Amino acid sequence: MLLSDFDYDLPEELIAQTPMEPRNASRLMVLNPREHTIRHEHFYDLGKFLEPGDTLIFNDTRVMPARLIGHRANTGGKVEIFLLRRLDAAQWEVLAKPGKKAQKGNIIEFGEELSCEITGHTDFGGRIVNFRFQGVFEEILDRLGETPLPPYIHEKLEDRERYQTVYNREEGSAAAPTAGLHFTKEQMAELEGAGFHLGFVTLHVGLGTFRPVSVEKIEDHVMHKEYYSISDETAKLIRDTKSAGHRVVAVGTTSIRTLESAAGGKGEISGCSGWTDIFIYPGYEFKIVDAIVTNFHLPKSTLIMLISAFGGREFILEAYRQAVEERYRFFSFGDAMLVYPKQPEAEREAELKELAALHRQAT
Questions:
Q1: Is 176 domain-assigned?
Q2: Where on the phi/psi map is residue 252: left (φ > 0), alpha (ψ -120 to 50), or beta?
Q3: Are the beta carbons of 107 and 116 closer than 8 angstroms?
Q4: How many structural domains comprise the chain?
Q5: What rounded mean pLDDT belongs to the chain?
């Protein structure tokens, strides 16, 4: 498939610059590819479109204050360091801007208590740095670091907790799992009280979120590895949900990638952890996920490819066109979608053969 197959026109004014208040007041587009229906609702009504016994799976990662602004020790030139993932106690993989001021051997200072040395380059254009600090690194980072926002958000965020989910627990992400930003603690309690199950996994969002697809043939794209973890408790909840005939609803693409990375087969999953570079695009057969809560994603992104694999490319792009016409809010602080799965190809082929046979009998 071609990268251009996942493009769409988006007016810049539809890119949400500030979060909705309250969180669950955003709009919700409900997509049913099998019935080819698109409904326009609100996020606080999400439970109306699920069934008691269904399980929602959330990514409980927490965004690090990953952006550090420093200066080169020898010239004073400004350098921005963006933390991606920790390699050991003091060594990190980072992005550096401008890259020409962050060459091997350069020292970047962020204040008296923190500096780093550029020790290497990565295959993806990043840097390896070794931090030098006095005290506890996490405490220093909390004081000096800034919560990173995507480059398409230009408004200042007054409360940096608004770029965190209300259920975050495990710090380590370079970006928020934004589909989860819609949930309030009250709505989660209401869902649980109404008979829905809530489960949690962890995937620390890394470089793959920021790296655009640069190849025209999407099969040639390589994802960056990200750390994920699923507890035995969550894996059992998923298996029990499946065996009872209910659905597993993934909240966000990071939850999808976690569940599908850990799947041993159709409906099979166990507690585990590791690194995943799974790339899901049309043609992929989902093993765990039965429905998806997600945001609207950037054109030509791996995220819109993933959602197209689940709901069907043409139908998803049609929904995006309607979202533009209906003036939905896009991207991280934007509105949401609930997507049911498209009909599996084997099932569709069997249905077409049955219809053809009935037609022959009728004639």
A1: yes
A2: left
A3: yes
A4: 2
A5: 93
Range of the domain at 186: 3-63+158-347
- Single-letter amino acid code for the residue at 21: E
Kindly tell me the sign of the dihedral angle through the C-alpha atoms of 346, 351, 356, 360: positive
In a domain, 165, yes or no: yes
Instruction: Say what the pTM is.
Output: 0.91
Domain with residue 190: its CATH number is: 3.40.1780.10
- Any residues with CB less than 8 A from the CB of 291 and at least 6 apart, and which? 50, 54, 247, 248, 249, 250, 338, 339, 340, 341
Residue the block writes with tokens 């602004």: 69
Structure tokens at 31: 């997509």
Would you say residue 250 has pLDDT above 60?
yes
CB 48 within 8 A of CB 242: no
Distance separating the N- and C-terminal Cα atoms of the chain: 39
- Note whether 279 and 260 are within 8 A (CB): no
Q: Please tell me the distance from the alpha carbon of residue 145 to that of residue 330, in angstroms, as a whole number.
A: 27
